[in-house]
Amino acid sequence: MAGKKSQNKNAPMADGYNETRAMRVAEVMNDFQRLQQYLMQPQPTPSADDYYEIGYEILRQCRAGATAVLSAEYDADLSTNESGDAQKRQLQRVLLDASARRFQAQKIYLQAVAAARWVNMRVGILQGQRRHAGHTAALQQADNALRAELAAITNERIVNDLRTKDWQAGHWLQEDPSLQAILAWINAH
What we know:
Layout: H1 18-39, H2 54-71, H3 84-126, H4 136-151, H5 155-168, H6 179-188
């Protein structure tokens, strides 16, 4: 087993977990890529009358947020000639970067799903008709349901949901960054 710890004899692993760290980075990045694919799907186009309705505003904000997360530079420079300790630190930095981006994408995803649910509710209420006074109460209920769903999307919920999903998948979570570290990374970038 000791011979399998390091692929590069010039760069021994500090603690034998660099391969595991690299696999964890790949897992987080794969999840981020899945979220990217969803976030870049076409969105419903509102009529001119509905353009400023809350659900459509949220969808536009989600698209802008997704574009910003996706277009930000990703520094994944992993030099194989570094020492094991340097590789460990680099992998931990990349894991923080990937985890913060996945966190942001998950938050945007949850908001977009809530807004899409609102669009479906609205379509069901209007049933192809123009909005009129008879729709007011039901449309207000849909707006309130969206606001409540958005309020329930907290940072703590997002981290807990992601960690639960990762734990259930059997992923190695020992060095996953804390919520505080993720938020600090987001604020710095």
